[in-house]
UniProtKB/TrEMBL annotation:
Its EC number is 1.1.1.284. Belongs to the zinc-containing alcohol dehydrogenase family. Class-III subfamily. It comes from the Bacteria. It catalyses: S-(hydroxymethyl)glutathione + NAD(+) = S-formylglutathione + NADH + H(+); a primary alcohol + NAD(+) = an aldehyde + NADH + H(+); a secondary alcohol + NAD(+) = a ketone + NADH + H(+); S-nitrosoglutathione + NADH + H(+) = S-(hydroxysulfenamide)glutathione + NAD(+). This is S-(hydroxymethyl)glutathione dehydrogenase.
Length: 369
């Protein structure tokens, strides 16, 4: 079938709106009509050429919501008409990783997903007979896409697509890091580095679980008001701190934070986040994605003395199980998504969404089809 898509032909070039061809779903796959998709930093990272795994030409996009229109043979958990969110981290419920409660990183389709292909090793997308790569197993910058059944979360039908698409990445990444990865307890002291779309979701996750003190750290004072609305109790601008930021944060939290979250992708901040975690028990979670080849460092004695360093991908969420719950949290008014979606536009304006992100003018832009 013909579908409308934003195609990334090469790095550092604007996306091009094209009519491309999409093959129907094969065994274990479903065809989804995408109704809305967010534009995330990871799409921009890949488009910039900095992503060592980036493949071109490709249809980017990994933060969508839509409706199942057709299912291939052997699909059991989905049917036409189901409302869904695509998952760049699938959940097969059978692999060694899915069977281990310590991780959400299902590996069932990892080798082909990383090559921009469906699990059978081929692509469903083409343009004038030439293959286009899938992206993150989702390719949501198209009004129709094909996904493996295990990479699709079924959600309730009254949830608005243009809001809950954000649960496909940013919301789940931030809130999940608090709830599923760190398992922050009520009464905790939390420090969040970076108050962008991810950091704000960490903040509202921390508020939801009952953290007492939620410190936000950002070099942009313009982030303060929205972060306070989301639950931040103290704001720290590193540019205004005299002396060492770590010592300042340790003092502010009365000895260090129970949990810290790095939501920027800056390796210096990752070190500071680890070192302002409380001696003896503090945990620091890396969420930000650093540049290719960058490394982190600290003195090993920081770990010897009881600080824990860990990371979180997709918030530690198991998509088919946890994403529908997060949609419920939104529909029940437990979390705020509306104030984070600062721009809504049609596919034809998708390059403006990238510009707004680069200029720091948006939290999240959403494309509606
Ligand atoms: P963003 O650009 O919206 O926000 C980053 C914030 O950090 C901004 O408010 C900026 O002012 C602030 N900042 C920049 N430098 C700083 C510094 N030195 N000190 C303090 N604050 C600083 O980005 P985002 O959308 O919130 O994404 C954050 C990171 O999370 C990115 O690296 C992104 O790739 C990553 N990410 C990770 C996952 C995952 O699963 N682990 C998923 C999605 C995104
Ligand atoms: O299983 O090896 C693997 C890959 C897991 C991918 C998780 C990606 C999360 C971080 C990238 C940002 C996503 C938008
Ligand atoms: Zn993302
Ligand atoms: Zn699995």
């Amino acid at each position: 079938m013909d579908v409308r898509a934003a195609v990334a032909f090469a790095s550092q070039q604007p996306l091009s709106i094209e009519t491309v061809q999409l093959e129907g779903p094969k065994s274990g796959e479903v065809l989804i009509e995408i109704k809305a998709t967010g534009v995330c930093h990871t799409d921009a990272y890949t488009l910039s050429g900095a992503d060592p795994e980036g493949l071109f030409p490709a249809i980017l996009g990994h933060e969508g919501a839509g409706v199942v229109v057709e299912v291939g043979p052997n699909v059991r958990s989905l049917k036409p008409g189901d409302h869904v969110i695509p998952l760049y981290t699938p959940e097969c419920r059978e692999c060694e990783y899915c069977l281990n409660p310590k991780t959400n990183l299902c590996q069932a389709i990892r080798p082909t997903q990383g090559k921009g292909l469906m699990p059978d090793g081929t692509s469903r997308f083409s343009l004038n007979g030439k293959m286009l790569h899938h992206y993150m197993g989702t390719s949501t910058f198209a009004n129709y896409t094909v996904l493996p059944e295990i990479a699709v979360a079924k959600i309730r039908e009254d949830a608005p697509f243009e809001k809950v698409c954000y649960i496909g990445c940013g919301v789940t990444t931030g809130i999940g890091a608090v709830v599923f990865t760190a398992k922050v307890e009520a009464g905790s002291k939390v420090v969040v580095f970076g108050l962008g779309g991810i950091g704000l979701n960490v903040i509202q996750g921390a508020r939801m679980v009952g953290a007492d003190m939620i410190v936000g750290v950002d070099v942009n004072p313009g982030k303060r008001a929205l972060a306070e609305k989301f639950g931040m109790t103290h704001f720290v601008n590193p540019k205004e701190v005299e002396g060492d930021l770590v010592s300042y944060l340790v003092g502010l939290t009365g000895g260090g934070a129970d949990y810290t979250f790095e939501c920027v992708g800056n390796t210096q901040l990752m070190r500071q986040a680890l070192e302002c975690a409380h001696k003896g028990w503090g945990t620091s979670v890396i969420i930000g994605v650093a540049g290719a080849g960058e490394e982190i460092s600290t003195r090993p004695f920081q770990l010897v003395t009881g600080r824990n360093w860990r990371g979180s991908a997709f918030g530690g969420a198991r998509g088919r199980t946890d994403v529908p719950k997060i949609v419920d949290w939104y529909m029940d008014g437990k979390i705020n998504i509306d104030d984070l979606i600062t721009h809504v536009m049609p596919l034809e304006q998708i390059n403006e969404a990238f510009d707004l992100m680069h200029e720091g003018k948006s939290i999240r832009s959403v494309i509606t089809f």
